[in-house]
Amino acid sequence: MNESNTYFSWLNVNWWIENQDFILTIIDNVVYLFFVFSISYLFIFALFSLRKRTVNYSPAAKKQRFLVLIPAYQEDKVILQSVCSLLEQNYPKEKYDIVVISDQMQEDTLEKLKMLSINVIHISEKDSTKTKALQCAMAQYGKNTFDVVILLDADNIVNPDYIDKINDAYYSGGMAIQTHRLAKNLNTHTAILDAISEEINNSIFRKGHVRLGFSSALIGSGMAFEFNWFKDNILKLGHVGVDKQLEVLLLKQRIFIEYLEDVYTFDEKVETSSKFYKQRRRWLATQTKNFSIACKDIPYAILNGNWDYCDKIIQWMMPPRVMLLGLLIIITLTWTFFNWPISIKWWIALFILSLTFCISIPKYLINSKSQKALIMLPFLFILMVFNHFRICEASKKFIHTEHSGN
């Protein structure tokens, strides 16, 4: 019996040795198809982002009533600057209210906010999340109290015509709106790469999508929604990642998400690799959890022709851009060293992905500082790899990204 087992074991090992080239080829082709699908998806939407905008909103005949909500968890360094930019709006003062949802902020900061004559809602949650903060704030307002709600982060800065331009889009029928989020600081290599990453996402997942007739992706701040819809639906949200949960609800209800590329929300970019690590871990956990929840809706979305929702699920299937680029470089160089004929198709894929990124990056970020910042890419790739081993931890609690106020 032992001799028989030894014989078959030897046969199995021998079979693997004799067919290893065939097996490696099959594995390589399967992996390559996954990369080709992801790269083709990004490349198509990047190309469409180059198309000229066809929709321009005319000045609204009516000034809507706006509620601006700013969740602020220990945001003493940045909240005053954000509020002041909102107080300088060209919009009629009696037509919008600013509400800071204060969670564990200092008394000195709260006194300064009161002097600015804005509303402050105090909350004290054991497990703080943006979702809980927004739910607490919306519970204090009845239906039809306002027409539109705007969600901003405590570090966001906006231009004086911000609310006015959102009002134009809403008056023209936009129930859900994402503004163009820009970096307000480019003071470190990490901040520059963070800004480049967001602008790539703006081009592909927002501008390119809207040009092709799909909904824009939400970012997390600089968002506006019809007030009654938001009040009804914010209570349906559970886990962390308020923007992704809202996307699911909007797309399942077939509500188009507009993207206002000329309405800017200035956002503080992470300045250090440690902050990048924490922030991306939270984002990765949110994406993974939302994908697992949305997977069960794939048959329903396909059968009902809800291609906007199908597209969103495809987005969540793809790896983050820095992971895609890093893995592609590793595979390409490996095949170049061991079997260069196979590497040719991988070099083509790498070229197309690089071209996609070049198309998506706006001109103002193409300079010598950005080129020097690329030295950080390998390190950030390694951090993203490590983040994949801590997804479960991030999905169970809120991970706060501290802002410096720059």
What are the defining features of this structure?
about 400 residues, alpha/beta, Spore Coat Polysaccharide Biosynthesis Protein SpsA, Chain A, eight-stranded mixed sheet, 8 strands
Please describe what this structure looks like.
By secondary structure, the protein is α/β, with parallel strands linked by helices. The protein has one domain: Spore Coat Polysaccharide Biosynthesis Protein SpsA, Chain A. Helix content is 56%, strand content 12%. It contains 17 helices and eight strands. It has helices at residues 2-18, 20-48, 79-87, 107-115, 130-138, 162-171, 189-211, 227-234, 242-252, 273-294, 298-303, 307-317, 321-338, 340-360, 368-373, 377-387, 391-396; strands spanning 66-73, 96-103, 119-123, 148-151, 157-158, 176-183, 223-226, 257-267. Strands 3-2-1-4-7-6-8-5 form an eight-stranded mixed sheet, with helices on both faces. Helix 4 links the parallel strand 2 and strand 3. The longest helix has 29 residues, at 20-48. It is globular.
The largest sheet, given as strand count, sense and whether it forms a barrel, is:
8 strands, mixed
* Rg over CA atoms: 24 Å
Strand content: 5-15%
How many H/I helices?
A: 17
**Termini Cα gap:** 74 Å
Helix content: 55-70%
Helix-strand layout with pairing:
Elements lengths: L1 H17 L1 H29 L17 E8 L5 H9 L8 E8 L3 H9 L3 E5 L6 H9 L9 E4 L5 E2 L3 H10 L4 E8 L5 H23 L11 E4 H8 L7 H11 L4 E11 L5 H22 L3 H6 L3 H11 L3 H18 L1 H21 L7 H6 L3 H11 L3 H6 L10
Parallel strand pairs: 1-2, 1-4, 2-3, 6-8
Antiparallel strand pairs: 4-7, 5-8, 6-7
Helix pairs in contact: 2-7, 2-14, 10-16, 13-14
